[in-house]
Design goal:
- By secondary structure, the protein is α/β, with parallel strands linked by helices.
- The protein contains six helices and five strands, in the order ααβαββαβαβα.
- α2 packs parallel to α6 and α3 crosses α6.
């Protein structure tokens, strides 16, 4: 048991040590995402994610001086006021978070502007199938595989 705990700690520390590499990778790659002009016209911003995938939204909100209202959703449903002027950012490290996927389907049905960031999964497929601009990252600098140790990707990707 102790060997397993030591191994897990070592992997977590390795992922933490690679945070600058995650930041650099995400910074370089996410600059290639191209957004249609209509995305600049959004009057509301909603970021959907759970746990570690929502954390970057809280960081952004605390650091941002944007005039566009920012709402963070850690649940299954978008706000009732979401519409075609709402930019919905879907954030799921794995791409398989059911709450985020639920919000994705709602955003599509409501005609919202949609973007996202993920390492793949169902969300990656949804974003690709619906031709939404998005950042799909390969978390090569997160050997732990745990989203909370891959924050470099989600913070810089956002």
């Amino acid at each position: 048991m102790q060997n397993t705990q030591q191994h897990n700690l070592a992997i977590a520390l390795e992922s933490t040590d690679k945070l600058p590499d995650q930041w650099n990778q995400a910074w370089q790659e996410s600059k290639n995402v191209v957004f249609p002009g209509k995305y600049r016209q959004a009057t509301n911003l909603v970021i959907c994610g759970m746990g570690g995938s929502a954390l970057p939204a809280y960081i952004l909100r605390s650091c941002s001086a944007s005039s566009v209202p920012l709402t963070i959703i850690e649940d299954y449903d978008l706000p009732a006021w979401a519409d075609d002027q709402t930019l919905v950012v879907l954030s799921s490290y794995s791409g398989d978070t059911e709450e985020t996927l639920s919000c994705a389907r709602q955003a599509k049905n409501l005609g919202c502007l949609i973007t996202g960031l993920t390492s793949g999964g169902k969300l990656g497929q949804f974003l690709a199938d619906n031709q939404c601009p998005h950042y799909l990252f390969a978390p090569e600098f997160n050997p732990s595989g745990l989203p909370r140790f891959g924050l470099g990707y989600t913070i810089m990707g956002l």
